[in-house]
Recover the amino acids of this structure.
């Protein structure tokens, strides 16, 4: 196994692309997205998995070519799929990460119908699909199998998933120094045991 | 199997994001990227595979929030991985598409060291990794297993892969109306036979 360097010289290019970022109280002020991105980087460095974040899609309207292809007018777009995908233990893996400031439930409004359709398709094709749901106020992040979320979505009776359900059916993800959020440990436990 | 609609009402959001696009002579003036995007859309619609293009990463420098998060200064960045990945027949699949106007060889300068490292990792982890290489002037596009490209890259003796090698070791991808470039047929033949 490759010894993981302390990472001082690492640059996380994703950082530059993120303009608005809510800081969670957990993990030394690191946002959920930052924690996951750093975990992905770490997993790549120790050659454990290749999981990448899809860049935020941007609708480019105007480009000034006289100034080296400077984009002068553009808008953020919503991701039509999920934020992360890749390969782990030979399997295709796909997930979405969401954070809520609520303490007792996770609102389904945080998820788009496109993401639901995408995750259903991933499951049909034999991939591993899940959500990472962070309760900011509790300093807790859970891995929740996508099928559970899809079930809530399809039933349409509730507009949110209770915290108690996520705690019961999901797996609490360990936070530590490196990786900041060890979500593949939860993947091992949930999908490979 | 779902009957594929004629697609007249379909919108390909990817289009909006692409600012500079070289038109190839092949396939009614459709660029290689367009052809692949439409094939991905088609495969998704008939539920054959879930393969998506990673959005072009953009380095956002300035955002005007008084005008609804209007991006006023940003730059295109190079993709640090490949352009496409997804799941097909239960397997993780990852590829890069490149076009050349040359007729006798494909220059390795078209590929970045990051992409090479990424594809090597994909292979180590058990994924399917390849290139789609288009010779614009010949109206031909080939599927070429990434291992062959990596071999040329690592040997470092040549700065390009001869057309004759690609023709011999790759698979010519069929062009038709729908999908415009049936690359999964070549994947079937190369990886699943």
């Amino acid at each position: 196994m490759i010894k993981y360097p302390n990472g001082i010289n690492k640059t996380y290019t994703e950082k530059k692309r993120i303009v608005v970022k809510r800081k969670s109280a957990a993990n030394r002020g690191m946002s959920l997205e930052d924690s996951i991105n750093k975990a992905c980087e770490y997993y790549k460095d120790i050659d454990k998995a290749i999981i990448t974040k899809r860049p935020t899609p941007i609708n480019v309207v105007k480009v000034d070519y006289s100034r080296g292809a400077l984009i002068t007018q553009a808008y953020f777009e919503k991701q039509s799929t999920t934020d992360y995908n890749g390969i782990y233990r030979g399997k295709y893996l796909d997930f979405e990460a969401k954070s809520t400031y609520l303490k007792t439930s996770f609102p389904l409004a945080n998820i788009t119908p496109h993401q639901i359709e995408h995750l259903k398709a991933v499951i049909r094709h034999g991939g591993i699909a899940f959500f990472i749901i962070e309760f900011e106020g509790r300093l807790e992040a859970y891995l929740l199998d996508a099928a559970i979320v899809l079930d809530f979505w399809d039933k349409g009776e509730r507009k949110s998933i209770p915290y108690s359900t996520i705690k019961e059916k999901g797996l609490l993800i360990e936070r530590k120094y490196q990786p900041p959020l060890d979500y593949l440990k939860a993947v091992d436990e949930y999908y490979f045991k």
